[in-house]
From TrEMBL:
It holds the Pfam family FKBP_C. Keywords: Isomerase, Rotamase. It comes from Lacisediminihabitans changchengi. InterPro entries: PPIase_dom_sf, PPIase_FKBP_dom. This is Peptidyl-prolyl cis-trans isomerase. It catalyses: [protein]-peptidylproline (omega=180) = [protein]-peptidylproline (omega=0). GO terms for molecular function: peptidyl-prolyl cis-trans isomerase activity. Transmembrane segments: none annotated. It is an enzyme of class 5 (isomerase). Belongs to the FKBP-type PPIase family. Gene3D superfamilies: 3.10.50.40.
Length: 124
């Protein structure tokens, strides 16, 4: 667990159409160890719906970071987190094909473009 203290991010609404490809935006570049594709990551994150801007998930709201093996996450995270360094904050705009699939896929977020802000606290 890292000891730097960041605050819960705020995600500004976007104008225009949702992207069809994964978008990575480094909001803050870390200087710690780098996440690799097979890593387990310790993250704080916020997820909002691209269209409505409504929050659907947040480790910040639960008050603790989460450890995830990257291989167990949606494709957008598997592609968007490697290369991040501990201490960094990255925004991912994830189209449905790299999130929960097309509309009607059985998940409440199927068919939705999602925005995540991810703080990388640790890798193992």
């Amino acid at each position: 667990m890292s000891d730097f203290n960041k605050t819960k991010p705020e995600i500004e609404p976007y104008d225009g159409d949702a992207p069809s490809e994964l978008v990575l935006i480094d909001l803050e570049v870390g200087d710690g160890p780098e996440a690799t594709p097979g890593a387990t990551v310790d993250v704080h994150y916020l997820g909002v719906d691209f269209e409505s801007g409504e929050e659907f998930d947040s480790s910040w709201s639960r008050g603790q970071s989460v450890d995830f093996p990257l291989a167990a996450l949606i494709a957008g995270w598997q592609q968007g987190i490697p290369g991040m360094k501990v201490g960094g904050r990255r925004e991912l705009i994830v189209p449905p094909a790299l999130a929960y699939g097309e509309a009607g896929g059985g998940h409440q977020l199927s068919g939705r473009t999602l925005i995540f802000v991810i703080d990388l606290l640790g890798v193992s």
